[in-house]
Amino acid sequence: MVTWFAGLFYLPRLFVYHAQSKDSVGIERFKIMERRLFYGIMTPGAVVTLVLGTWLWLGYGFSGGWLYAKLLVTALVMIHHIWCYLALIQFRDDVNQRSGPLLHVLQLLSSGSSAQ
């Protein structure tokens, strides 16, 4: 779970840097970094987290109001993961329309941190 969340917090930051990059070497470097982070760290972390969480839930039969809250948060995190995937595709294909400042605001919202 830690690797998944670390990627979810860092990938939007890479998108900010990518959107602000002007040189082709830097742009290609960000494409590689984003791809490796998403496919090599985030997605495997998400799969392991979801499989083990489902196994724990079904194996031990947890129930209660907190479970619904956890499922809601898990669904929201999955939506953020899908948004990252869609943004990754746009950057890969050089069709991103989001500006660096907008991506910075979205990155701050997703990580819950304050401006640096």
Short account of what is shown:
This protein is mainly α and 116 residues long. It is built from four helices and no strands.
Describe this structure in words.
It contains 4 helices and no strands. The chain has 116 residues and is mostly helical. The protein has one domain. The two termini are 26 Å apart. The model has no long low-confidence stretch (mean pLDDT 86).
Describe the protein's topology.
Elements: H1 2-20, H2 24-60, H3 65-92, H4 100-111
Question: Keyphrases for this structure?
Answer:
116 residues; mainly alpha; 4 helices; 83% helix; elongated
Average pLDDT figure: 86
Number of domains: 1
Q: Give the tally of β-strands.
A: 0
Hey, roughly how much beta strand do the residues contain? under 5%
Cα-atom Rg, whole angstroms?
A: 16 Å
Could you name the ranges where pLDDT drops below 50 across 5 or more consecutive residues? Answer: none
Order of helices and strands: HHHH
Overall shape:
elongated
User: Quick one: biggest sheet?
Assistant: none
Number of helices: 4
What is the first-to-last residue Cα distance? 26 Å
SSE-based structural type: mainly alpha
Helix content, binned percent:
over 70%
